[in-house]
Design goal:
Two copies of one chain form a homodimer. Chain A has about 150 residues and is mainly alpha-helical. In chain A, about 70% of the residues lie in helices and about 5% in strands. Chain A has a single domain, classed as Winged helix-like DNA-binding domain superfamily/Winged helix DNA-binding domain (Arc Repressor Mutant, subunit A, Orthogonal Bundle). In chain A, strand 1 and strand 2 form a beta hairpin. In chain A, helix 1 packs across helix 6. The relative contact order of chain A is 0.18. The structure holds a DNA duplex (30 and 30 nucleotides).
Chain lengths: ~150, ~150
DNA sequence: TCAATCTTGATGCAATTGCATTTATATGTG
DNA sequence: CACATATAAATGCAATTGCATCAAGATTGA
């Protein structure tokens, strides 16, 4: 890796980080204004909604969402308290259980979606027009088939 | 904004978020392994290093780094406790002060840089080769001069 | 000038996170 | 089977964050 590639990676990273930060702020604040749960809860609800009746084991969710184990453990407890998911013992593994989205959970997920979608659309369009995005784009264009 | 653009924005957002998450994990863990301060501290030290002897007011730093006021206030207190920055009353504004990087602060910032740079280089190259990046790239390419 | 308003920065308190450890079950090996 | 090791999930405790509010100095404007 040459020096100039390093510089580009760092610039790209700064662009990526700033775009992310702006987007998270915009999305969280849109959800909060609408008195809806946070982005993190949305991600959990979405995965469980996609998983359907079979649900997902906490460790599966943990990997899909790149969350720390203890973090997920407590977040799912809170989401369960809110009534959006439920748990049932796993048939196959006495240590664990499956998390399943509830009817209320599906409802709230559906209510979050338009708010989330709109905030993403707006903030990403803004990002796309920024210098940060231009630098990231430069870096990404340079190569994209190592795997 | 058409429906298909919406779908692309969401896909792009997911790619952006995952790339960010992987990168943050990689960078933080590289810094931690090297017994160095976190990414957040690096950002502060870098800005103050760039600002030189004049330093920066907390509110300026807050805006540059997109941090919440209370968050920055406490973080700078911790960095000051660690001896990497110092504060001096502002000549122009009795409410505030300037934050200035110390010699030790410059030293630790310099020590962090190669670790940070290497982690960024590795993780961004990985990201660049991913499907997440491909989707983000598609979205970014579509348009980039709205402003 | 001085009261109303705004800006800068700190802080009490509750909620969340990070780290290390614990508990319980599963799996693999002799 | 019996033991060692690995995996799933929870939790005690300290550190950090988020929210709301506060205190102090700056600014505005009648």
């Amino acid at each position: 890796m040459t020096d100039s590639e390093d510089v580009n990676a760092t610039d790209a990273w700064i662009g990526l980080a700033r775009g992310h930060s702006h987007a998270v702020d915009a999305i969280e604040s849109a959800l909060k204004s609408a008195a809806l749960p946070s982005l993190a809860w949305y991600d959990v609800l979405l995965e469980l909604d996609k998983a359907g009746g079979k649900g997902l084991r906490p460790f599966e969710l943990e990997r899909k969402l790149l969350l720390a184990q203890y973090n997920l453990s407590r977040m799912t407890a809170r989401i369960e308290d809110a009534g959006y998911i439920s748990r049932r013992p796993s048939q196959h593994d006495g240590r664990g259980f499956e998390l399943v989205i509830t009817k209320t959970g599906r409802k709230i997920r559906a209510a979050m979606w338009p708010v989330y979608k709109k905030a993403v659309g707006t903030t990403l369009a803004e990002f796309r027009a920024s210098k940060d995005a231009a630098r990231l784009l430069d870096y990404l264009k340079a190569n994209n088939n190592t795997d």
